[in-house]
Amino acid sequence: MSEVGSEANPLRVAIVGAGPAGFYAAERLFKEKGLTVQVDMFERLPVPFGLVRFGVAPDHPKIKSVTKVFDRIAKKPGFRFFGNVDIGEDVSVEDLKQYYHQIVFTIGAPTDRNLPVPGVEFTGNYPATEFVAWYNGHPDYRDYEFDLSKERAAVVGIGNVAVDVARILVRDPDELAKTDIADYALEALRQSNIKEVYVLGRRGPAQAAFTPPEAKELLELNGVDTLVLPEEAELDPLSQESMVAAGRGVVRNVEIIQQMAQNEPTDQPHRLTIRFLVSPVEIFGNEAGEVVGMKLVKNELYKTESGTLRPRATDQFEEMPIDLVFRSVGYRGVPVPGVPFNDRWGVIMNQEGRIVDAETGEQVIGEYTAGWIKRGPSGVIGTNKPDAVETVVHMLEDLQTDKILHPAHSQAGAAEVFIAEKQPRFVTYEDWLRIDEIEIARGQEQGRPRVKFTDVEEMLAVVGK
Amino acid sequence: MKVSGLLATKSPTVITIHPDQPVADAVTLYGQHNIGSLIVVDRDNHLVGILSERDIVRHLPEYDDVMGTAVQEIMTPRVIVALPQDDVMSVAHTMTERRFRHMPVVDEGELVGIISIGDIIKCQRDQYRGEIATLETQIMAENI
């Protein structure tokens, strides 16, 4: 038989997960000169783009525009999309090995960590990730309910996800009505009684994990007083010392935070307060089991041996009345059956994207990973590009040395027949483009970028599946 | 980026050596695993030092038989360690300031990895590349 990767015998790659890491991996494979490659991308949902569709905030359309670039990758000859196919459920990893030379897992990090404090069981303590998925119309979360009839919410964590949640809670619904936010979420936010939102950071202004544009946006929200307690905006001596070597983002963050500290509260309908150097130590509930308050401990910073400024609890506490808690303390990956998992870091066990055996550390031939499930949740959308490129470069090296799978069925068309057998209602890229077109048309009627389908059956119905 | 993110894509196995083994064993391990530094642990797997290529070179003039010398004679015994939650940027700063190239990572007293200055430079490079890729993708999208 002719060499794998030639026109007569293309390299067959399965990419599991249709988020940014998956598309960047596909892009890099298509760029390889002299290689003929067939990329089959599998997605559990009928629609692609992962966190670009279900994570990026609806009021950030510019960030979502990257999907146009992903569309171009999907148009390459040799690219196929199999939406509504759950690897592990409809088709197993073992099945994939019968049809592909290489398999790349780019399934992201879907769950969140809970707070290690008493009282987390009270109603009204939600993972921020679920709230995000809900307002973005993720089919798995559309039936979730968030009680927005109360007045005070705390967002624990101080990264961009925390800031997104806080902003969506206080933003004028008339502004959100111009976005592709889920209709049911818009309706709930219109009915919302939330007046005050606190964003709680464990460390100080110089260690805030949000990026300057996200922070600056908070200052510009209509109808919102964005505040920082003046004493918490002041840098402690260790942070001051660290500013000498700080990057531009940190310097800008500190400037913006200090600007917020100069704001005087006016009579705006919403108030957003960013707190620093505090950690929740307990959530209080009432007899009905609902969150009614929170106990915070004041932190101080200390320097670890290696020079990081970390929070350490002091003996000063405060209690604040709170009705809702959104925790945003990090996404975490979940294991795929049959794929080695590194429980310590919450990622697939890998070495620069090559999956390795958990016991022996030996490479698992033909299996790779990229994106958050490879490195953990960090960076921006584009961070997945160098990450995916690293993985693909190793895949190409392994192709050279024949460290690939030799599937029993590698002839053209074999995989499609098999998948159609296992999941007859699979969605092609053309189907997705049709769904996309309808969503955009529905949006145009209302002056919105799109109105998403949020129900899998509905998505399938419009493409006749 | 945290140190944990950097360890996530590295081999989960940390190559170690015992203090009473000869330096020759260390040199063999450097070659076998293509590394430049070894964590020295006692029989209970507690961190007792680090032995880098540099430690060996530094002691070459003093010893007639460096290869036969016990690791503990020439290792660096007091080791600064990183925690998984440490910021990569501040670890980079400390490594540069203190002029060392490897740092063991310890989680609740357990040795969980080692990071080199090379890992850190790669991490910073990929962070910048990622920011550039984000902007590039946005500009490309505007022109489609």
Quick structural overview:
Chain A is α/β, with parallel strands linked by helices. Chain A has helices at 20-31, 50-54, 61-64, 67-74, 93-97, 128-135, 160-170, 173-176, 183-191, 212-219, 230-233, 237-242, 248-262, 372-375, 384-400, 414-422, 429-444, 456-462; strands spanning 11-16, 37-43, 79-83, 102-105, 111-112, 125-127, 152-156, 196-200, 224-228, 270-275, 278-285, 291-303, 309-321, 324-327, 331-332, 341-342, 347-348, 350-351, 354-356, 363-369. In chain A, strands 3-2-1-4-20-19-18 form a seven-stranded mixed sheet. In chain A, strands 6-14-7-8-10-9 form a six-stranded parallel sheet.
Mean residue pLDDT of chain B: 91
The structural domain count of chain B equals 1
Coarse structural class of chain A: alpha/beta
Show unreliable segments of chain B: none
With helices defined by DSSP (H or I, 4 residues minimum), what is the helix count of chain B? 6
Strand-residue fraction of chain A? 15-25%
Euclidean distance between termini CA atoms of chain B: 32 Å
